[in-house]
């Protein structure tokens, strides 16, 4: 697949992601030609970042329509809630490409453009865009979910991802909410789990910065082990060892913080036991012992 040439690229929405992608696309040799944002300052910031030396600065447009008129491929990089209304608010033309970068929003949000004869698609980097420079520097190697019913645009977006040194993969139609929610397990929910650990260490009188300092190397080594050995073979802990006695101690200690804390620990450990069985780490008998321990009723008087 050679992919459709994306031609002059425009951005509507010059926020964290819009600015970072515009810089990355321009550095990869793509023509970032026009930008509009709710405030002129954001649009100017994008244009300045794309071309700091003002050699061929993108047009800073006062209205989204001017970006649509000036470009072949338009990235709508406004907040998720405004993607659909933005797509409806301008006049598209046949042969144009319109792309959004939201993980959880279906491509149907761009149907106004599709009805006008434009190709539509999604380009979602599995990446955190906070500070623009940091985000651009960390883009190489990041996965990008590409979706389009139009083969040429799909291939063009795959090429674009390759050209910014990212790793594209294709998403099936209608799957974005599940895809996006699941990705949270590798992102923001890891933060939540780290916070649980820090809170419990707080009960031991260990300050949170000291707790985080001590727990981060463990998190790093967990990630490295997953990379080198995979999930099941790389798993450590009570479930992977079939250690029901230690699990009972854990449940009692964690349960002292409350029923919700115990329930969370037990529910996650149930999933660990399932993974340990599936990957041949423990026998069915060991799994039964772990499940029996997990199913023991929680009684407040135990604590
Ligand atoms: N941030 C991330 O980590 C991340 C990761 C993957 C995907 N995404 C996706 O990227 C897209 C943009 O997110 P973001 O994080 O970049 O958000 P953001 O920093 O809040 O930027 C959104 C930009 O859209 C502009 N905007 C809002 N309404 C507008 C309108 N009606 N007309 C023109 N411009 C408008 C805002 O303009 P002003 O600044 O001018 O007010 C703002 O700069 C979303 O679809 C999001 O899901 C974000």
Give an account of the 3D structure.
This protein is of the alpha/beta class and 303 residues long. The chain has two domains: 167 residues, 3-Layer(aba) Sandwich (Rossmann fold), CATH 3.40.50; 118 residues, no CATH class. It is built from 15 helices and eight strands. An eight-stranded mixed sheet has the order 3-2-1-4-5-6-7-8, sandwiched between helices. α1 runs parallel beside α2 and α13 runs antiparallel to α14. The protein is elongated, with a radius of gyration of 24 Å. 32% of the residues are buried. It binds NADP nicotinamide-adenine-dinucleotide phosphate.
What is the radius of gyration? 24 Å
Bound molecules: NADP nicotinamide-adenine-dinucleotide phosphate
| Beginning-to-end CA distance, first to last residue | 64 Å
Give the beta-strand count. 8
> What would CATH call the homologous superfamily of the largest domain?
NAD(P)-binding Rossmann-like Domain
Uncertain ranges: none
- The main sheet orders its strands as 3-2-1-4-5-6-7-8
In terms of quaternary structure, the protein is single chain
Mean pLDDT: 96
Q: Could you describe the largest sheet, including whether it forms a barrel?
A: 8 strands, mixed
Q: What's the number of domains?
A: 2
Q: Which class of secondary structure composition applies to the elements?
A: alpha/beta
Please identify the top-level CATH class of the largest domain: Alpha Beta
Strand content: 5-15%
3D shape: elongated
Percent helix among the residues?
40-55%
Could you say what the CATH topology of the largest domain is called?
Answer: Rossmann fold
């Amino acid at each position: 697949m050679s992919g459709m040439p994306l031609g002059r690229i425009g951005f509507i929405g010059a926020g964290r992601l819009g600015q970072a992608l515009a810089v990355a696309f321009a550095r990869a040799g793509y023509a970032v030609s026009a930008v509009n944002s709710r405030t002129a300052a954001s649009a100017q910031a994008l244009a300045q970042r794309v071309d700091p030396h003002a050699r061929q600065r993108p047009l800073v447009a006062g209205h989204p329509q001017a970006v649509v008129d000036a470009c072949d491929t338009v990235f709508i990089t406004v907040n998720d809630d405004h993607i659909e209304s933005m797509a409806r608010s301008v006049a598209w033309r046949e042969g144009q490409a319109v792309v959004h970068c939201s993980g959880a929003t279906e491509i149907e949000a761009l149907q106004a453009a599709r009805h006008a004869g434009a190709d539509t698609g999604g380009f979602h980097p599995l990446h955190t865009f906070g500070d623009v420079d940091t985000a651009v520097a960390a883009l190489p190697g990041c996965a990008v979910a590409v979706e389009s019913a139009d083969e040429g645009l799909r291939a063009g977006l795959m090429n674009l991802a390759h050209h910014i040194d990212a790793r594209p993969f294709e998403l099936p139609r209608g799957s974005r909410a599940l895809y996006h929610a699941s990705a949270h397990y590798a992102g923001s929910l890891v933060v939540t789990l780290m916070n649980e650990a820090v809170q419990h260490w707080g009960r031991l009188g260990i300050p949170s910065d000291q707790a985080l300092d001590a727990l981060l190397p463990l998190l790093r080594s967990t990630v490295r082990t997953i990379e080198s050995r995979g999930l099941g073979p790389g798993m450590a802990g009570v479930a992977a060892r079939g250690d029901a006695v230690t699990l009972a101690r854990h449940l009692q200690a964690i349960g002292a913080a409350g029923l919700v804390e115990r329930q969370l620990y037990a529910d996650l450990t149930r999933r660990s036991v399932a993974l340990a069985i599936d990957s041949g780490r423990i026998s069915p008998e060991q799994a039964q012992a772990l499940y029996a321990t997990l199913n023991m009723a929680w009684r407040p008087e135990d604590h």
